[in-house]
Amino acid sequence: ANDVMDWLRSYGSKAKRINLEEEDYRKLSVTINDVITDVQLQLKDGSVLKLQEVSVFFFRGGLLKEHAENYVQEGLSQRLIRTHLSYEFKTLTQFFYSEISKKCLGNPTCYPLNKLQQLKTAVACGLHVPSTLVRNNRKDLLEHVDDPNSFLITKSIQENVLIQDSDIHHFDLKVHLIQPGTLPERFFPSLFQNQIKREKEIRTFYLDGKFYSLAMLKCDAEKEMVDYRTSIHKLRYGSYKLPLEIEGKLTQFMNKLNLNTGSIDLIRDENGDYYFLEVNPTGQIGWVSDLGHYFLEEKIAQYLLQKELKFDAYVQQAVTR
């Protein structure tokens, strides 16, 4: 986001960056009548964000937070009041983000994006996905496994655990190999996938119909690597061109999910087949940009600037009528 802002400033854009800590859902105002739908958010610095006056948004994650407050109403319990207010909060903020998404690079209504729904949608678009199971006991899992001593991949169904070590933040290993026969009899519902014999992993940044891909090749010392994110410095990288057929299916996939941008993870197996793993609507792009020599931050800035200029021209035309 910092680099994109730098590029926008260099082009003379009027872009304004708003961080999550500057927002408060209690300062949201909505006006709906026969003439207009007007949505405004007063920021903590006193300025007002008027959605109707914004040409384009660039969403990089972070949603309005619900504040736990005590309200007293005779005859109603605190639990009932909080439940009611929580529904009110969700309805108000969902409408706010729905209005933003109409002119947004990124989609706050799809954040976070259900990873099981991703897999189902990918299959509907003709993409291969690893065979996936969610089970909560060893018996049911073993019914779908040929060899209890073989290895399956297991990872979080949705989000990873963030571990804080002093002032340093890092993520725990995102993917594990596990032998289903060694699992306890019962456990929390967990996701398991067949391990794919991969030739390479591919990270693709998608920007409104265009693909910028980076291939990650394992070195001999990393033949047993499970997750490339644990061996970032032990891989070889190169810009990569996906087959047009795969790009077409991914475009269909992104359109079905109402996403105009995102970071897509793929695997190409030893037979040359491509497997979809997941898409992160707000995934990191700096390393793909740098290692692939794509200058993605500038491309994003140019995309946003075109929207800004088009909006300004429309407003000017309306004023002179």
Description:
- This protein has 321 residues and is of the alpha+beta class.
- 29% of the residues lie in helices and 28% in strands.
- Strands 14-13-12-15-16 form a 5-stranded antiparallel β-sheet.
- Helix 1 crosses helix 7.
- It is globular and about 70 Å long.
Helical content stands at 25-40%
Rounded mean pLDDT is 90
The topology string of helices and strands comes to: HEEEEHEHEHEEEEEEEEHEEHH
State the strand order across the main sheet.
Answer: 14-13-12-15-16
Strand content: 25-35%
What's the number of helices?
A: 7
Pick out the low-confidence regions. none
- Shape descriptor reads globular
Characterize the largest beta sheet: strand count, sense, and whether it forms a barrel.
Answer: 5 strands, antiparallel
Distance between the termini: 37 Å
List the main descriptive attributes of the protein structure presented here.
single chain; globular; alpha+beta; four-stranded antiparallel β-sheet; 29% helix; 321 residues; 7 helices; 28% strand; five-stranded antiparallel β-sheet
